[in-house]
Amino acid sequence: MVNDRTALREHLRTGLLGSLLIATACLVSGCDHSKVGFQGTDFYATEEPAATVAGTAPAMPAEVAAVLGQPEAAGAVARWATDLRTHGLDGMTDRCWTMAPRNVQAMYADPGPILDALALAGTADGSTASWRNDEVTVVAADSDIASGYACPRVFPSGTEPAFDDADARHTVRRFLSRLAGKPLDPADVESRYPLLCDGSAPERYPAAIAAFEDQAIKSDWQRGDSITVSVPVTSTAGIQKKQTYTLKSGAEGYCIGDVSG
Questions:
Q1: Burial of 201 (0-12, 13-18, 19+ CB in 10 A)
Q2: Domain co-membership, 203 together with 148
Q3: Per residue in 121-151, pLDDT tens?
Q4: pTM (2 decimals)?
Q5: Regarding predicted confidence, which is higher, 219 or 225?
Q6: What is the share, in percent, of the chain residues with pLDDT greater than 90?
Q7: What's the CA dihedral at 255, 154, 135, 55 to 10 degrees?
């Protein structure tokens, strides 16, 4: 039987509903050449401009059905959905900086089924709000909803929502970007968007680094829910070394539990 993790990886290879083709070599090996235009990795783009919705009329707000028990969910997701309907994939990676760029491109490649699902009544489970139809399930985390602009994750209906290797690498990318003084967004601070696991000792991690090699980030699955992410970093003293982070999967994504190197 194909497990949920395997099903999700297959979904990311073919693109949501078969609309986006991604090269598989680096996906299988876990390599991470994060240069725009290098397909099959966390960052990629085709030579064609990103799809946009034709017409110049002012955008009408996307319809997002209410979620019982989570009154803020519809508004937060509607702001994102309006951007998706108006601009297509153009600019969604920058807007949805908490998500791995590869997943943004794959999950949002076909807006039609997503917008149709959002028009149906949503449900809340205590940490997420979700909408679904026969084609897709759309899931927004409560932490993103609280920010007022929620970029949801999208999965084919019938599969269990889960996090993948690109999510783990992006967690480390965000963490190292903070340490280097260049967060992906000014709001990306630990107090608002925790990346360290509960109980993880902050003193285990450097207070700052000078740089890290984004194109060399690699990941490797361990036993259970753990995954390791390795990346070359340069300390503020100019010393270069490889650090390896151990991450655990939780309800809202991966958290960093330890570091070595």
A1: exposed
A2: no
A3: 999 988 899 999 999 999 999 989 999 999 9
A4: 0.78
A5: 219
A6: 64
A7: 180
Residues 163 and 254: beta-carbon distance below 8 Å: yes
Model confidence at 171, pLDDT cuts 50, 70, 90, reads very high
Domain interval for residue 116: 4-156
Q: Are residues 129 and 193 in the same domain?
A: no
Our count of domains for the chain comes to: 2
Q: What is the pLDDT of residue 23?
A: 30
In this structure, what CATH number is given to the domain that contains residue 193? 3.10.450
Instruction: Looking at the structure, tell me whether residues 57 and 151 fall in a common domain.
Output: yes
Note whether 182 and 199 are same-domain residues.
yes
Same domain, yes or no, for 23 and 150? Answer: yes
Q: Please report, for residues 92, 96, 121, 124, 198, the alpha-carbon distance to residue 251 in angstroms, rounded to integers and kept in the order given.
A: 23, 18, 22, 13, 13
